[in-house]
Amino acid sequence: MTRMTEHEALELLRSRDLLGVGARAHEVRERLVPGPLATFIIDRNINYTNVCVSGCRFCAFHCAPGAPEAYLLPLEVIHQKIQETIDLGGTAVMMQGGLHPGLDITYFEELFRSIKERFPVTIHSLSAPEVVHIAKVSRLTVRETLRRLKAAGLDSLPGGGAEILVDRVREEVAPRKATTEEWVAVMREAHLQGIPGTATMMFGSVETLEDRVEHLRVIRELQDATGGFRAFIPWTFQSGHTALEGSTDEATGVDYLMMLAVSRLYLDNIPHVQASWVTQGLKVGQVALRFGADDLGSTMIEENVVASTGVHTRANSADLVHAIRGAGFIPAQRRTDYSLVRTF
User: Percentages helix, strand, coil for the chain, rounded to the nearest 5?
Assistant: First the structure.
């Protein structure tokens, strides 16, 4: 089968043929993920710190070192949050925070080991920029940093910190964060070491449609080389309380569904596409299951980063089960590796 080209992807994004593109994306979804199931995961986002030296213009969550609202969660609080997650049927935790100047590799080794000693849980944690930062603070290579994190219990890497993988865009919205090359290098090395992960896209800030397609090209090319991405997760930029508030035209639900559908069509080598109901709401997430998505992501027992922009969307497992059934699928709870826990 002939692969979609970048030009074809761009033409689809420009076409505004939402229903036609969505139908094509759903056909691909049925081929790559056949069967009546649509999945979700019960896990928790634990933001272990909000201290960050990056100062991204799109972020309302971070604060400077020494600020009154700065925090670093005590170990016992993190353990309590994980226990609460397991009590709710959870199977994983996603720990992400800022680029804290005082946290080196030993902090994360001790943290991950303490979790694995106590809980039967998947550690799906740390973005590529966090790995780059930890390596720099610890004066280690990315390869050695990942090796030690894996030995301590890291199971997989979320795709956070990708935003748009075009350096012109990154220099405008996140000039002190990892470059495109650094993000790709972390993910490539992780995959080579047997640490799989996800790829993401945050769109709707200052990028062009051409930039979005270039982002997809970078992801597809890396996946061709490593096969390490389990899923792709696009979501829309939320500008509230950020340095970019009022300066951009935020992506609409139509923009989101079109981007999701084109992603499914272009990324022919990534099996799963996840709907982002946290930014678009559960109704749009439900519709997304007919526009190429096969997964509704997490119940988000806890979510602080998007919430800091003023967007507060919540759903429990019963809500996701109801939404999946309403879209015409059989709901199933999955683990991080997409193996099934149970169907409903």
Answer: 45, 15, 40
